[in-house]
Design goal:
The protein is α+β, with helices and mostly antiparallel strands and 201 residues long. The protein folds into 2 domains: 69 residues, no CATH class; 124 residues, Acid Proteases (Cathepsin D, subunit A, domain 1). It contains 5 helices and 11 strands, in the order αααβββββαββββαββ. Strand 10 and strand 11 form a beta hairpin.
Length: 201
């Protein structure tokens, strides 16, 4: 093979290599164009809109569950001497969990209320029947209801079986009830900045 033939052969190889590189570059550019610069509107799935919406829905759901758990009233704490301790909530009130006639209730402790008070819907579920018809004087006006004696109320290890309960006053949701003096009067109550302490008399 002469010198000219070798030069021609090398030149042909260089041209083929350049052509191969150009073809690869065109192919990459074509793929990029199809993926990112296409004339057609990209679907929400390709742009990431739907995955992003799903992500934020999951985040908000987790935050809601965390806040619900954080704000949920706790069981009353029982000290070694038998005192009951209820921690003050973030809104300044005292809440705890207990039962009325065996049905779980969220108690809002109200030292100014004369009775443990429940809604009519709660009373039906807790089988609080009968009672004496009465009219309750509330901040929102008069309300018809009834007063029932001999109802069982429990908080932590303390259970009273002969508590007077007012039926017909709602504290919010169906299972939210007022814990008034018909239960609290059995205790000496001490309130400090963060806690309410109930000591049996």
């Amino acid at each position: 093979m002469g010198v000219e033939d070798r030069d021609w052969y090398r030149e042909a190889q260089r041209e083929r290599e350049k052509q191969r590189q150009m073809d690869e570059t065109r192919a990459r550019f074509s793929d990029f164009s199809r993926q990112h610069l296409g004339a057609k509107a990209l679907s929400p799935i390709k742009t990431g809109l739907i995955p992003m919406m799903i992500f934020w829905c999951v985040v908000m759901g987790l935050l809601y569950m965390a806040m619900t758990h954080y704000l949920k009233p706790r069981q009353v704490q029982v000290l070694a001497n038998g005192d009951l301790v209820i921690n003050r909530s973030h809104d300044g009130h005292f809440y705890t969990i207990g039962t009325i006639n065996g049905l779980e209730a969220k108690f809002l402790v109200d030292t100014g209320a004369s009775l443990v008070s429940v809604s009519e819907a709660f009373a039906q579920k807790a089988f609080i029947r009968g009672g004496v018809p009465t009219t309750f004087k509330t901040a929102n006006g008069d309300r018809l209801g009834r007063v029932v004696d001999g109802v069982g109320v429990s908080i932590g290890p303390v259970s009273l079986t002969n508590v007077r309960v007012g039926v017909g006053i709602s504290a919010g949701e169906e299972n939210e009830v007022l814990l008034g003096q018909s239960f609290l009067s059995k205790f000496d109550i001490t309130i400090n900045k963060q806690q309410m302490v109930l000591r049996s008399r």
